[in-house]
Amino acid sequence: MIKSLFAKRSKEQEAETPSLAGLFSRLNDARKSGALTESALDGVDRTHVAAAVLMVEVARLDTDYSGHETDRICSIMRREFGMSLDQASELLNTAEERHEEAYTNWLFTKTIKEKAGMAERARVMEHLWDIAYADGELHELEADLLLRIGQSMELPESERIKALERVFAKRVPELGTGS
Q1: In CATH, what number is assigned to the domain containing residue 139?
Q2: Can you give the residue range of the structural domain that contains 81?
Q3: pTM of the predicted model as reported, rounded to 2 decimal places
Q4: Where are the beta strands (DSSP E) in the chain?
Q5: Mean pLDDT, to the nearest integer, of 27-43?
Q6: How many domains is the chain partitioned into structurally?
């Protein structure tokens, strides 16, 4: 069991950060054995884990957790976190497990709020809206959750709405042009 997913790491631990290949191998081994521990997560950017868990939360909210959402999550992780497909898949698996264990989104939004700047938080918000809209519909529960997550990350309401507008503009070009 994880003592603290978001515990601060010592300078020695930071200096000993393993390669991504080794890291994901350890994560996979730990996941398979059912003994995913904090040491298995050494070297994982806590903000990436937190963002991935929130993406899974949004994708599962409408009870239609499908390939559309998982593909979108992996695509965002590959593009934004610079991961290979295998690495993104491993982080997705880890995020799904963390989601199952999480009682609230508080730890994840707190991590992002404390470690990410305003622009990065707005980008996370945009990705969350993108995941929510991956199935072509924005459900009321999804919108409510995302507005609360944005508030928890201390993202101004105007930025939360702008993030949603950017997603709609990409998905439905006529909305973005004012037509």
Answers
A1: 1.10.3680.10
A2: 20-26+37-176
A3: 0.50
A4: none
A5: 50
A6: 1
